[in-house]
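Pasting as-is:
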Amino acid sequence: MRHVFFDLMGTVLADPYREALQAATGLGPEHLAESRDPSAWPAFERGAIDEDAFAERFFLDGTRLDLATFHRVRRAGYRYLPGMRELLDELVDVATLHVASNYPAWIDELRVRFDFDARFTAVWASCHLGVRKPDLAFYEALLARTGIPSHEGLFVDDREVNCVAAEQAGLSAHRFSGVGDLRRRLRAEGLIAG
């Protein structure tokens, strides 16, 4: 195992999306589910629509999402999950690390803010690849663009469905539930010392 692909939200960074939506809309999860266009976010993550179109399409009734409030809360909520920055710093000299995430164009903002280029060889997001996990085409595009043989890669994600799809693409997969469990897996793979 020489290459590790990391999901971003809920695996490397805390995901402030739900809190940002609640602040921007004043709606709880149950009301959001009823009033939003379920196709807007996936289309934005794939890069099929831009941020402005996402804000316009978010609500089924045509109400525009309050992007100013959304961004304020979103930006304040990002942070490394406990122990992840340190783990990435340990891995950077022993494996090639890649971000492999469902995320819209905001990933470029995060790349700069969290200095991903110091830790990751490349940042791949659904907005770059035009397809979202768990679609098999996401993993195929990832492997084709990196040139990495699937049997040499470990895919780390907090969602089981994404791990299953990674395994179907020939990658090994680890469902992230915390840094301790991930450390044990990386030790077993020989990537960090016991």
